[in-house]
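seq as requested:
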Amino acid sequence: MSTNRSGGDRFIWGLIIVVVGVIFLLGNLGKVSTHNVFRTFWPVILIIIGLWQLISSGYRDVFPGFLLIALGLIFLLRNLGHLPRNVWVYVWPTVIIIVGLWLIFGPLFRRRSLSGPAVTADDLKASVVLGGINRVVTSQSFRGGRASAVLGGLDIDLRDAALDKGQATIDVNVFMGGIDIKVPRNWKVVVDISPVLGGVENKTASLPDAEARATLFVRGSVVMGGLDVKS
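struct tokens:
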């Protein structure tokens, strides 16, 4: 994760914490009802995080940000009495449909990353829903592909593989699941992910370009899940 992104994450979470502290302070001073404020306006946190995700990712992958903003607006309008209290009955099936459409069409609409080659071949097609899959790739001319995990875990082992022309890209989509990618120690891995309420870790060694035998680009989005890359 880039330094700019990490600094921005600290700013947004710091701002949220400051606002929460101010609300408690005003509550203790008898100026506002802390319980009523949090009960009514907690969805604003989802909206703020969604907006920050859109801006910090350069609008390359708009789905996670728009999803959080939409959910925040729906719950806020419900709390303010502009929507029925049972609106969640209709929202959660709609969210499931949207997630499915995202997995199908998301890569077509995702703006191209500033780094890494395009995914021109599908040497890797791995998808898991409500389960777990281990995928071992031994191709000596691996050209990249796509991987998705929804409410499940996906383990991709590339330690015995070699990249075609020294570069390849994997597009990943994670929703309430996890993807683990294992690579050889002499690969350089560039991670370009837009996490929302999730975690992304690149545990590979930071190799200079002159020492790296190949470069793997991992890009996409992680929503309420995790991505772990290690050698």
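The CA atoms of residues 63 and 99 lie 9 Å apart.
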